[in-house]
Amino acid sequence: MTLDAPARLTPDTLPAPVMAGRDFLSNLDMTPLELRTVLDTAHSMRRGEWRDVKPLAGLSLALVFEKASLRTRTTFDVGMYQLGGHAITLSNQEIGLGTRERVSDVARNLERWVDGVMGRVYLQQTLQELADHAAIPVINGLSDMLHPAQLLADYQTIEGEFGTDLRGRRVVYIGDGNNLANSHIHLGVLTGTDVTIVTPVGYEPNAGVLMDAVKAGVQVTLTNDLAAIEGADVLYTDVWISMGQEAEADIRRRAFRGYQVTPAMLETIAPHGIFLHCLPAHYGEETVPEATEHPKSRVFDQAENRLHAQKALLYHVMGEMKPRW
Fold this sequence. Notes:
Blueprint: H1 32-46, E1 60-65, H2 71-82, E2 86-91, H3 92-95, H4 103-113, E3 116-120, H5 124-133, E4 138-142, H6 148-162, E5 170-174, H7 179-191, E6 194-198, H8 207-215, E7 221-223, E8 234-237, H9 249-255, H10 263-266, E9 274-277, H11 289-292, H12 299-318
Parallel strand pairs: 1-2, 1-3, 3-4, 5-6, 5-8, 6-7, 8-9
Pfam family, one: OTCace
Family: Belongs to the aspartate/ornithine carbamoyltransferase superfamily. OTCase family.
Keywords: Cytoplasm, Transferase
């Protein structure tokens, strides 16, 4: 049996960009309908329907890194290339955000040369300052507060398993109440998933992010009871020690003892349930190789979807721009 070739889009059949020219610093910078459109585009890209179009031809994206990166750097760079654009990588050694140069001056320079900025930084305020002073879109590739681009790939992966109506699906995040936990709460607001955060006392998500859920009338369950994992549709974890927290490593390892995702833990989630991890994995801490390689794991599908989801984001943010040269 031969499979039909995927439908191919043409320049005349592309969907209209829904976030044209806007910043993307948080998942809540999208409406639920805009999120739906971006995820639909990501699914279409994964199916190969965009191979004949180059909607970002002639456009450039600056990739600004304060933190090391494998997935973020590769997927944004390759994503711009596949859409016909160009990416330039700038390490913090080269630009020195806030040290060698004021963040506002970096923004005012970049807006003269490129058409967008993706930043993978420590402080959310750094991204906000870039956005405040640059007349071009700024995309959050990660901050200590939020990781919204990752969540696009995560929900593309979840939808690939369960379909697009996720209302009532149980997403259980176990581990540090960090940027991933915060962004999971925001996706619960946008999609209607039932979000539970399982974390030790003292490591809860950001209070302001929890208030975002309260304002939206969405309930988020906070607990340190590992029994909350049972029956989950999605079990998600992340590292216990993020970049910049190395001085707390021993304290954190003690606090999170017992929160490691193992194959035995995966047997307690729903029979159809899946395991996700944004990577890199610190094996022996938050998980073990046997979990990421388990039949319920979709970890590497999730990593692939970083490319598709971020291409969709780039198109919907930059797709109406015209080359300036």
